[in-house]
Design a protein that fits this description.
With 296 residues, this protein is of the alpha/beta class. The chain has one domain: Rossmann fold. The protein is built from eleven helices and 16 strands. The strands form five sheets. It has an eight-stranded mixed sheet with strand order 4-3-2-1-5-6-8-13, with helices on both faces. The longest helix is centred in the N-terminal third of the chain and has 24 residues.
């Protein structure tokens, strides 16, 4: 199968491309510069440009590109970059695939569980409405930008991903060195729920969406049992055999992270109802197995 991927150098994109190539698929990588290899296609999300000719013959497009929400302090300028990189980029991809004489069977737009806002201790699935806050509004606009592809009759799925447990990057990429040094601890009171997923299961779920024709619309990519930050902290200490005595107070997070601190301290108890109903089986359903899978 010929599959196009944006964000192919990111944490999830790198793992997805590796998995697809290993199984013999033909992967097209969209890059924001002139192509240097036969498998590259140029695009520019901010200019909303895509070399659509390079997508001819693709049966699936997996759109994962976007500025990292945890990469920088949330200034107004960076919040604009977060929104523009997702909304403008998604609109460009959706318009490009819709313009093809033979469009792909499916477009997967990688979004986030931030769509639901702070759910507290309340568990939510894909039927829940969007929540309040900056990330929720970004996710709404992000998903809405796929409209041209949906209007062209392409199956569109929103892969609403939780916190990916991986040592190579993302939030957990920052946590592992801290906990290995014995400096790990809960964030705030630790009552907030974290909806996590192992990197292996994330890739497997994306491939499941490609192969399972019934999945469209929002699909939560999270392990079946979300845990509180306190429980995750205890698991990190247990698996890594390190103490977890420290606590990061809320005011310190706000100083370092700005507005993003509210999302770190917020609670999202998200369930993967549609994945489970479609027959997907998690290889790492528990936090302990997800952490162990991320270790070298």
């Amino acid at each position: 199968m010929r599959i196009a991927v944006t964000g192919s150098t990111g944490l999830i994109g790198t793992a997805l491309v590796r998995s697809l190539l290993t199984d013999g698929h033909d992967v097209v990588r969209l890059v924001r510069r002139p192509p240097r290899a036969a498998d590259e296609v140029e695009w520019d999300p901010l200019r909303q440009y895509v070399d659509a000719a390079g997508l001819i013959g693709c049966e699936a497009v997996v759109h994962l590109a976007g500025a990292g929400v945890g990469e920088h302090r949330w200034t107004e300028a960076y919040k604009k970059e977060i929104r523009d990189s997702r909304v403008l980029g998604t609109a460009a991809i959706a318009e490009a695939v819709a313009s093809l004489e033979v469009p792909p069977r499916v477009l997967i737009c990688g979004t986030a569980v931030g769509y639901y806002g702070d759910t507290g201790a309340r568990a939510v699935d894909e039927s829940a409405p969007p929540g309040p806050g900056f990330l929720a509004s970004v996710c709404e606009d992000w998903e809405a930008a796929t409209a041209p592809a949906q209007e062209a009759g392409i199956r569109v799925a929103f892969a609403r991903t939780g916190l990916v447990v991986a040592r190579e990057g993302g939030a957990w990429g920052r946590l592992f060195p801290i906990f290995r040094a014995g400096l790990g601890g809960r964030l705030g009171k630790g009552h907030q729920y974290w909806s996590f997923i192992s990197l292996y299961d994330e890739v497997a779920a994306l491939r499941h969406i490609i192969d399972t024709d019934v999945l469209s619309g929002p699909v939560n990519l999270t392990a079946p049992t979300p845990l509180t930050n306190r429980e995750v902290t205890e698991a990190m200490g247990r698996v890594l055999h390190r103490p977890t005595l420290f606590t990061v107070p809320p005011f310190a997070l706000r100083i370092v992270l700005g507005d993003f601190a509210e999302d770190v301290l917020g609670s999202q108890r998200v369930l993967p109802k549609k994945l489970l109903e479609s027959g997907f089986t998690f290889t790492h359903p528990s936090i302990d197995t997800a952490i162990r899978a991320a270790l070298p």
